[in-house]
Amino acid sequence: MTTWKKYTTRLLFMTHGLAEKGKDLSERLSASTHTHTHTHTAKPFFGIWKGDVKKFFDSVDQEILLKILSFRIKDNTTLNLLKEIIYSFTTVQGQKIGMPIGNLTSQIFANIYLNELDRFVKHELRAKAYVRYGDDFILVENDAEKLKIFRTKTIDFLKNNLKLKINPKSDKIIKPAHGLKFLGVKIWPSGRTLNKRSLSRATQRLNHSNISSYSGLIKRHCNKKYQKYFDWVVLEKLNF
């Protein structure tokens, strides 16, 4: 079982998390293809289930969140303070549902809430590999039928234990050869690259304070040709 770290910001995840784990996933997918080539046996299905939670922040059950928090926090004063913070917002009038998007506490509570999903995948399903960033995640397995079973069990777990639903638009089982699009990066068995939107955003938002971050991002995920182009963009920005 491979479990991967959670990252606090999208840029940090892309520059450090995907640089390490995207490479690891590419190598695993490549190894699967090479095994088929050399042994001349039936090609193993190495599948990836990609999903995200539908309207996560609007759907969090506040009572379930407090129950999860109470497992670790035994101080009543602290729990009462957390209740005030959590109950101060709702997305459905008269119901204890939802968290405000953008609040620092909401980001922390989101990871605590979805840690239950992480534990389920790690200890119950024992999938080959699993990555989650916020409410986006991928689950990897060698066997096609097992992957479908894992998908069904995960959807049931989210519905019954966390009162959450999977977004049908992103609910996809992908073959590695088709490429995996995840958080602005596309990963193949042969490597990875930033998608066009991420590349455009990197050049448009480039300034003196974030040059090192975006340069690291380009270096880790782009080919030599685009790296040279980006170097010229950096020089142009520095000259003004």
Task: Describe this structure as you would to a colleague.
With 240 residues, this protein is of the alpha+beta class. It has 9 helices and 8 strands. The strands form 2 sheets. A 5-stranded mixed beta sheet has the order 1-3-4-2-5. Strands 6-7-8 form a 3-stranded antiparallel beta sheet. Strand 7 and strand 8 (191-194) form a beta hairpin. The radius of gyration is 21 Å and the shape is globular.
What does the secondary structure layout of this molecule look like, with pairings?
Blueprint: E1 2-3, H1 10-39, E2 47-52, H2 56-59, H3 62-72, H4 76-87, H5 104-125, E3 129-133, E4 136-141, H6 144-162, E5 172-174, E6 180-182, E7 185-188, E8 191-194, H7 196-204, H8 211-221, H9 224-238
Parallel strand pairs: 1-3
Antiparallel strand pairs: 2-4, 2-5, 3-4, 6-7, 7-8
Helix pairs in contact: 1-8, 3-4, 5-6, 8-9
Instruction: Identify the strand order in the major beta sheet.
Output: 1-3-4-2-5
- Percent of residues in helices comes to 55-70%
Strand content: 5-15%
Query: Helix/strand-derived class?
Result: alpha+beta
In N-to-C order, the SSE pattern is: EHEHHHHEEHEEEEHHH
DSSP helical segment count:
9
Instruction: Outline the low-pLDDT stretches.
Output: 1-16, 32-43
How far apart are the termini?
50 Å
Based on DSSP secondary structure assignment, what is the total number of beta strands?
Answer: 8
Rg over alpha carbons: 21 Å
Query: Sheet with the most strands?
Result: 5 strands, mixed
Average pLDDT? 82
Question: What is the general shape?
Answer: globular
Keyphrases for this structure?
240 residues; five-stranded mixed β-sheet; single chain; disordered N terminus; alpha+beta; 9 helices; three-stranded antiparallel β-sheet; 14% strand
